[in-house]
Amino acid sequence: MSYPYQIKSLDEYHDAYKKSISDPAKFWAAIAENFLWKKKWNNVLSWNFTGENAPQIKWFEGAKLNITENCLDRHLKDSADVPALIWEPNDPKENSVTLTYKQLHEKVCAFANVLKNNGVKKGDRICIYMGMIPELAIAVLSCARIGAIHSVVFGGFSAQSIADRINDAACNLVITCDGAHRGAKAIPLKPIIDDALLQCTSVKKVIVYSRTHTPVAMMKDRDVWWEDEIKKVEAQGKTDCPAEEMDAEDPLFILYTSGSTGKPKGVVHTTAGYMIYTTYTFVNVFNYQPDEIYFCTADIGWVTGHSYIVYGPLAAGATSMMFEGIPTYPDAGRFWDITDKFKVNILYTAPTAIRALMAHGLDFVKDKKLDSLRVLGSVGEPINEEAWQWFYKNIGKEKCPIVDTWWQTETGGILISAIAGVTKLKPSYATLPLPGIQPAIMDEKGNEISGNDVSGNLCIKFPWPGMLRTTWGDHERCRKTYFDAYPGYYFTGDGCLRDENGYYRITGRVDDVLNVSGHRIGTAEVENAINKHTNVVESAVVGFPHDIKGQGIYAFVITEKQNGDAELTKKDILETVTRIIGPIAKPDKIQFVKGLPKTRSGKIMRRILRKIAEGETENLGDISTLLDPAVVEEIKREKV
Ligand code: WT7
Asked: Residue 42 has what DSSP assignment?
């Protein structure tokens, strides 16, 4: 495949950027010409961030397409035997799997027919809860093939979290595995689904792929095995599956993400704009060249996996790697072993992984070649200078640009990032907006700050094709969350600065959202979970700097009875959070307190708690508005 829209020099970038701002419709229409349409659009863009029923965002209205024809069918002519997916198992002794575009196409068609045989129709919502195996990508693409909306839930979420997500979207089918291999552990998945489904009446069928061969309970009339269902479609001779004709703005998927309230939101992405944006940014940010091996270490359970393991790379006809395991199994050299084994050219990973591997020392790097690497990428949180330098020197051997890609579940794809080989780098800076992206930095009064060498809250003032369209089942919530704070702008929730050269540095969330190991967790969600424990009266959760995770979770908890075993209570609280949300939301520190710093109106002053959690004892700011300033002294004294 060739990419006529690939940017090859700084001049080309500036030129593309200018065109994308002066005439966005013309700019994106020209890129859209490189895709496969069943019918072309009538109108490139109509939008409104403020009017009635806002936001209203429509890209390529009137167009008809199927994203899987772009990700699979159109490559069959010239690239049928090019590897589409290369899968590396958790256990390095097990064989890896390569699926060419032809093979992936066959598998997607077969499984799409399995879905049809099990009653799935266009527009149905399908919950996918699986480990990182090729069948996860196949499941996702099979939904898209027949126009079903997938809702992938990360394998680390609890039964309760799954049930909430299934019920919110009224999913009628679940695709899962018996279990998942992650490092030395085999994690049960099907039993967790069974627990979740006790609370879900909408689910009629569960399709189970056997990966770990651990015993599972298969419910009569509800649960079927993936492998058996495939045999059925083969016996029926249903090897092909025509791609459903989808509207440009038909929903492609829902992905739940945390915000400042207790309940995660179902971010909705639609078809044409998302496809074009993920492909365009994939090809440009990583400077992908045909036949290169691209390895994104994310999990498909997060947006990074959706956009930059599955849809973007496959629509570009790239070879995309999937890794089942964890960076430290069997040892902290695993990423580098994989890089050498498959001669990976582009490696896209997260600062938290880099810091974790950095902590294991250079012994795990020194015997690796790593000479195939050409481009490195980072995503999920600000990358600190130390991790940047370590990655640049020891992995990239000072030859590979690091693209620090800033984006969000809501943005669908990368918005601010260097373009590999084009943009001059600056460690810990995401650098410049990609074509089509119009960032705005806002001051406290809600006005846009112009000029350079400024900081404030980051907004985007014009739509881009990959942006979210709504939050599932609650459009008003979408407006309130993203379009209310700064009328006329999309508000990201991030703080940022723009340096004297116009380079952007994202400084972190300005709302009550934590970023723990690159995972977004709302403080309110964790508090709600902690408060479910019988002995808990009230709690307040804040973040604190953590060497590996970026941010750790610090919980201040008031208990009803203080005469018990404090250590046991802490363990109980951790168990409660694991039950309600999942192990990723477990607090790193729990401090029992007698009171919380509250204003006279009863509002918890998190600013003070945040400072204490960060280790600040002197400058806590103004505490005169507190109902009982004495609690602050006690909390400081007993800090854990
Ligand atoms: C939040 C979005 C986008 C995929 C993974 C996370 C933070 C993400 C960067 C970066 C600084 C970053 C932001 C953002 N973030 N990438 N390169 N530099 N911060 O997706 O779970 O939706 O989280 O992650 O705070 O708002 P997400």
From this structure: S
Asked if the structure places residue 118 within a domain, the reply is: no
Let me know if residue 538 belongs to a domain: yes
Ligand 1 proximity of 504 Cβ (cutoff 6 Å): no
pLDDT at residue number 376: 98
267: closest CA among 257, 278, 252?
A: 257
In a domain, residue 332? The reply is yes
Q: Has residue 621 got a pLDDT over 90? A: no
**Global confidence as pTM:** 0.97
The residue among 342, 375, 401 that closes a domain is 401
pLDDT tens digits for range 388-438: 999 999 999 999 999 999 999 999 999 999 999 999 999 999 999 999 999
On whether the CB atoms of residues 171 and 127 are closer than 8 A, the answer is yes
Query: By the 8 A CB rule, do 296 and 304 touch?
Result: yes
Ligand 1 proximity of 506 Cβ (cutoff 6 Å): yes
Could you tell me which residue, 220 or 602, shows the higher pLDDT? 220
Interatomic CA distance for residues 622 and 615, integer angstroms: 17
User: Which residue owns the Cα nearest ligand 1 atom 11?
Assistant: 382
- Work out how many domains the chain is built from and give that number: 2
What's the rounded Cα separation, in Å, for the pair 197 and 396?
A: 46
CA of 359 relative to ligand 1 center, distance in Å = 23
Closest residue CA from atom 6 of ligand 1: 380
Structural domain for 572, as ranges: 513-637
Ligand 1 contact, 351 CB (< 6 A): no
In a domain, 428, yes or no: no
269 touches 468 (CB < 8 A)? yes
pLDDT score of 300? 98
CATH code of the domain containing 555: 3.30.300.30
Residue after which a domain boundary falls, among 401, 432, 462? 401
pLDDT on residue 533: 95
